[in-house]
Amino acid sequence: MKFLKAVNNNTIGGTPIGASAEDKWTGQRSIQANLRKTLRVVLSVLNVVGLLVLVLIFAMPFVWMISTSLKTMPETMIFPPEWIPKNLVWQNYADAWNTGPFLSYFVNSVVISVGILILQMLTIIPASYAFARYKFRGSNFLFGIVMVTLMIPAQLIFLPVYLELSAFKLLNTHLGLILPFASSAFGIFLLRQAFKQISDELLEAARLDQAAEWKIILKIMVPMVKPVLVTFALFSFIAHWNDYFWPLVMTTNETARTLPLGIAKIREVEGVATWNILMAGNLILVAPILLVFFLSQRQIIKAFVYNGVK
Amino acid sequence: MAKIELKHISKKFKDETIIEDLNLTIKDGSFTVLVGPSGCGKSTTLRMVAGLEKQSGGEIWIDDKCVNDTPPGLRDVAMVFQNYALYPTMTVRGNIEFGLKNRGVPREEREKLVKDISEIVGLTPHLDKKPQSLSGGQRQRVALARAMVKKPKVFILDEPLSNLDAKLRNQMRTELIQLHKRLGTTFVYVTHDQVEAMSMGDEIVVMNKGVIQQADSPMKIYHDPANLFTAEFIGTPAMNIMNRKDVQGLDIQSAAGIGYVGFRPEQAMINAGADIEGYVLEGEILIRESLGAENIYQIQSRTGIFYVKTFLAPLVTADRVTVTVPHDDLYYFGLSGERLRGIEVSTKRPVPAGGI
Q1: Which residues of chain B are under the pLDDT cut of 70?
Q2: Gene Ontology terms, cellular component aspect (chain B) (predicted)?
Q3: Most Cβ neighbours (<10 Å): which of A21, A303, B113, B281?
Q4: pLDDT digits (tens, 9 = 90+) for B314-350
């Protein structure tokens, strides 16, 4: 205490030594702190504004589609366009649904997309697990072949596939639309990477726990790559739900045709483009996808974030 | 409870030989610690016992049964991994009972076993949590519980404490020793930390470059090292080793080719006085480390740096000191590092100035 007092009383001519310099220093520091605070606020506002702009850009086509699907035909042509229709014409949905055998399209779409998904899961999980976890002769070569198939466009192989399906009498059947996509090179690639990231020790622990190989895959490995699996499932579902080219080429009548073909037909039927009906049809088309997306949103985000126990 | 025998084991990775002709018997109910520097083959040996690695040659026997072709799950061996290797998608309960489920243990029995084990390791409040939400120590306990619940013949632990902080490590060390006492099962433990080895093992196997240097009790390993490697590896600070050529003033009555002379830092005495008969070194203290109960001095002598450790003695403040090592506490090693025993020495008089 005595020492402290002595320091405090250390004055020359009544002015404490160094007091003014210290004040100046603290003053400068507080100005700097204020500046930094303002900068932070400005940046966070800019961030929010930027995100809002992005949301607008992405949401606008959707909002436009919903708005148009509820307008009358003349309203769709008004300039400047109106965002909210005066009367909501729900009849458009019924009209769209009734332009063709939409129930059958819808069922076909569900059967084909889900069928493809199930078959893909059955093939890509064991294949990618084998590529990721087993060392066997020719594994690199075989994986190379799988990768090469990624680079071949569908337009290049549809003719031989068509002839083949026709030979097996599979044209205009669900099976004919499902079988060509029974496996997915992209899925094998994606899942192989995910399986590779899992530590060997986990597998060894499971082996010491007397787990059979199928049990290791189903109980330990697959749950660990679930986010990746869900993401792939979503990609696959969307791709095949929206697929236009393949069902168009592989069907010659309505028995196995899918929703995108039905929607395209709305345009053909009327001669002039009835945008309101068309948009109602499109909404019917995308509604299931939106539903699936909302349900699996959390898993998708997880898939892109590192997930593991250290 | 089981005895483990490794007979003429060898292991090659492609063209590289990791282990050659390794013979080892791990006693029934012992706490055997395999210790050695990184890459000495200790983990590989352990993994071969567990069946996770296949030996290139030789036989492994667990309890009078050759397990060469027995898959890991059927060897009645449980393992605790360095990174715990807990199943992240399962709860603590799921992790513990996974092995039991695979063995087809009925549900009621399973529940009872899980309950008992989680009480022992103190996990009862966490049974329904996922491993991610547990601390390092708790995860370690889950890994232990998972191993214990199977009531294996052999526990294999691969550096299980190296991911824990120092305090928790000490605590878990004690818990593992107690656990071993309680279960009476054979424990095989791998570590690179000689302090861990000394404090836990009742049998220590020192390995280097795939070769067993010495397998003995901790005290034998410390007091009676079989070779230079063991002598230098066990003990902190390590044994001071001097080249025979640098050692002056020792009258060695032996024709055996002595290559090195060594002494433990704790057996040397600083400024002991002339009445103690021994080998005398002179030097300058470079660094003093005071740990409370013990002091460690780094001393520069004419031929090199050596360490001296004293217990419950006041810190030496003088710069230049005389260090005396009793003749009985000197260790002799041959040119290729093997231990030489029964060597008689006396100090040449007068002591040459300057020590070594």
Answers
A1: 1, 253-256, 347-356
A2: ATP-binding cassette (ABC) transporter complex, substrate-binding subunit-containing
A3: B281
A4: 888 888 999 999 988 999 999 888 998 888 777 665 4
- For chain B, the domains span 4-230, 238-347
- State which residue of chain B sits closest to A226, comparing Cα positions: B89
The distance of A215 to chain B (nearest Cα, Å) reads: 9
Q: Number of structural domains, chain A?
A: 2
Residue A10 belongs to some domain of the structure: no
Check whether residue A143 and residue A201 sit in a common domain.
yes
Gap between the Cα atoms of B161 and B157, Å rounded: 9
- What was the pLDDT predicted at B347? 67
- Model pLDDT, residue A267: 77
The runs of H, that is alpha helices, within B103-217 are 107-121, 136-148, 166-183, 194-200
| Predicted-complex ipTM score | 0.81
Mutate to test the interface with A, among B67, B81, B138 (most CBs of A within 10 A): B81
pLDDT at A305 over 70: no
The A residues from 220 to 249 touching B (CB cutoff 8 Å) are: 220, 223-224, 226
Instruction: Tell me, yes or no, whether A284 and A139 share the same domain.
Output: yes
Residues A99 and A237 both lie in one domain: yes
* Nearest chain A residue (CA) to B86: A202
**Chain A residues close to B52, C-beta within 8 Å:** 204, 207-208
pLDDT value at position B348?
62
Considering only CB atoms, which chain B residues are within 8 Å of A208?
50-52, 72-73, 77-79, 99
Q: State which residue of chain A sits closest to B158, comparing Cα positions.
A: A201
Interface of A with B in 66-125 (CB under 8 A): none
Does the domain made of B4-230 have the CATH classification 3.40.910.10? no
Domain range for A46 is: 18-54
pLDDT at A20: 57
Q: Residues A49, A99: one domain?
A: no
What is the percent of chain A where pLDDT is above 90?
A: 54
Homologous superfamily of B238-347 in CATH? Nucleic acid-binding proteins (2.40.50.140)
User: Which pLDDT score, from 0 to 100, does residue A41 have?
Assistant: 93
Distance CA B48, CA B53 (A): 5
Residues from chain A contacting residue B102 (CB–CB below 8 Å): 209-212, 215
User: How far is A202 from A216, CA to CA, in rounded Å?
Assistant: 9
The 10s digit of each residue's pLDDT in A1-34 is 444 444 444 444 444 444 555 566 677 778 888 9
In a domain, A241, yes or no: yes
Contact flag A309-B146 (C-beta cutoff 8 Å): no
- The shortest C-alpha distance from A208 to chain B (Å) reads 4
User: Taking an 8 Å Cβ-Cβ cutoff, which residues of chain B contact chain A?
Assistant: 50-52, 71-74, 77-79, 81-90, 98-99, 102-103, 131-132, 139, 146, 150
DSSP state of B265: G
Tell me what the mean pLDDT of segment A59-70 comes to. Answer: 92
Note whether A227 and A300 are within 8 A (CB). Answer: yes
Contacts with A62 (C-beta within 8 Å, 6 or more apart), sequence order: none
CA distance A228 to chain B (A): 14
Mutate to test the interface with B, among A200, A209, A221 (most CBs of B within 10 A): A209
The CATH code of the domain that includes A243 is: 1.10.3720.10
Residue A110 within any structural domain of the chain: yes
State whether B102 and A209 contact (CB < 8 Å). yes
- Give yes or no: residues A105 and A188 share one domain: yes
Is position A214 within any domain? yes
Are B355 and B302 within 8 A, CB to CB? yes
| pTM flag (> 0.80) | no
| Mean pLDDT across chain A | 86
pLDDT at position B39 is 87
